[in-house]
């Protein structure tokens, strides 16, 4: 793994938080009335914002062998974070997007269910220490499902890193219950 310099990543967290405050687009009543959606697309489209976020997501990362990005914005972030850490990247896909055979997990959402998949052939994840990356931590269900999927293959989720955590939705507690209290959760910004 590449060298993560704590001072450099801590400074990147500060720069990333400023970019998030400056560029996040607020959309009222999306995806439903009463919801104020925070669109991070403009932050990621800004070169300085993207650079700061990628480095900030590595803050506190040690002993990572692989980065797993959750479909779809986690793909963008996961690849860049993996490059920063000098490790490989794995896309955790939504169900039906990969050719068989796949490892899959189906999990409950507040409005139904969803499935996540990774390839079952060509990868040996046994013993790999994985950093799970996504854009937003809301209720935590998707992160726990992705971690469950990776753990079933013999990998070990060593941490979760997100750009923004929606604190009022309890995602951090869901992760602690699902993965154990020792799995660190790093959020660049809290909302």
UniProtKB/TrEMBL annotation:
Q: Which reaction does it catalyse?
A: AMP + diphosphate = 5-phospho-alpha-D-ribose 1-diphosphate + adenine
What keyword terms does UniProt attach to this protein?
A: Cytoplasm, Glycosyltransferase, Purine salvage, Transferase
Q: Which GO terms describe its cellular component?
A: cytoplasm
All copies of the Phosphoribosyltransferase domain together span 62-164
| GO annotation terms (biological process) | adenine salvage; AMP salvage; purine ribonucleoside salvage
Where is it located?
Cytoplasm
Q: Matching InterPro entries, A to Z?
A: Ade_phspho_trans, PRTase-like, PRTase_dom, UPRTase/APRTase
Q: Look up the EC number in the record and give it.
A: 2.4.2.7
Instruction: Please state the pathway this protein functions in, per its UniProt record.
Output: Purine metabolism; AMP biosynthesis via salvage pathway; AMP from adenine: step 1/1
Q: Which Pfam families match?
A: Pribosyltran
The primary site where this protein sits is cytoplasm
Q: What HAMAP family does this protein's entry cite?
A: Aden_phosphoribosyltr (MF_00004)
Q: What does this protein do?
A: Catalyzes a salvage reaction resulting in the formation of AMP, that is energically less costly than de novo synthesis.
Q: What is this protein called?
A: Adenine phosphoribosyltransferase
